[in-house]
Amino acid sequence: MTGPRLEIDLDKISANARILVGRLAARGIAVTGVTKAGLGSPEIAKALLEAGVSGLGDSRIENIERLRGGIGPRPVLSLIRTPMPSQVDRIVRHADISFNTDLDVVRQLSSAAQAAGRIHGVVLMVELGDLREGIMPGDLERIFREVLNLPNIALRGIGANLACLSGTSPDAGNMAALSAIAVSMEAAFGVALDIVSGGNSANINWALGDTDIGRINDLRLGEAILLGREALERRAIDGLHTDAFALVAEVIESGIKPSRPWGTIAQNAFGETVQTADSGKIMQAILALGRQDSDPAGLIPPSGMTILGSSSDHLVLDTGGEPLSAGAELRFGVNYTTLLRAMTSPFVAKTMMKARSQQGALAAA
């Protein structure tokens, strides 16, 4: 099999999703399965749907189009990044719902939906402190009122996003604030909001705790399902698989070398000045995997081995004394950033694995 490649265990992804869907359902919260780290893979999407997610969300219309073509007219597909005005025609054709923060963009969605003869659902995102996307709470009533009156737009709910930019953690305080805003908007306008989306994988500890969830009835989960970890401290979630993805790379050189470079040391190819301790001679291996393929900083090497550095095309390891031959393969665990980059790279093959006995290569997008 070719390398580098990302091996994707669909059974483990489905098992993780099924466990989280069940635990959150007991708290009155539905799960929107986020597919962006999977590059809109229909195979991953089907694994999520089989596990009971209520719908799928992605930040790229290209991925949503891929999902629509791969899984048909159902389920509900949501664009979870504020739409680009240049893409509103595509968005109203392929996404059932979009998450929005800018009134001008919603107006353009309205015009595009009218032209397409479609009704487009909108969730308005509220700023709760992370300072990425969101309408300031004091401006929400004015925007809410106008969106309700836009033709071909169905105001489906409100939502929030935390921990992605500044690391602001979801907690009882900000989640109660979002619930209060939902109740206030419903009372002020005489509407019932279908969706009150509390956030992402960073919300897991809050959602499965003993606090009152209020009106929150949806979470958008990617990392928690795919990697089995919550997104605040990256701790493993009890009972979930943390190894549904493995990045496999091939050894192209192996031998004993000094641990410390010599000569006049300047910046490397990425503008970094590298400080290296002298550990004497080591067994070093070079793998055909670099920064153009993924993010080496998020790789988890095999036990006993240490990543020494990387360039565009090479990953250098201290093998801990274990001799390796050219052509040998090593498997690495991945964090979320590494997974995202590897899925996006055209140089990393994607291999879907199901029921352990069946596997098939998925051509890189």
TrEMBL record:
MF terms in GO: alanine racemase activity; pyridoxal phosphate binding
Domain Alanine racemase N-terminal: where? 8-225
- Lineage, top-rank taxon, reads Bacteria
What cofactor is needed?
pyridoxal 5'-phosphate
Q: Which InterPro entries match?
A: Ala_racemase (IPR000821), Ala_racemase_N (IPR001608), PLP-binding_barrel (IPR029066)
Q: One Pfam match, by short name?
A: Ala_racemase_N
The record's listing under SUPFAM superfamilies reads:
PLP-binding barrel (SSF51419)
The alphabetized UniProt keywords are: Isomerase, Pyridoxal phosphate
Q: Which GO terms describe its cellular component?
A: cytosol
Q: What is the name attached to this protein's record?
A: Alanine/ornithine racemase family PLP-dependent enzyme
Source organism per entry reads: Parasphingopyxis marina
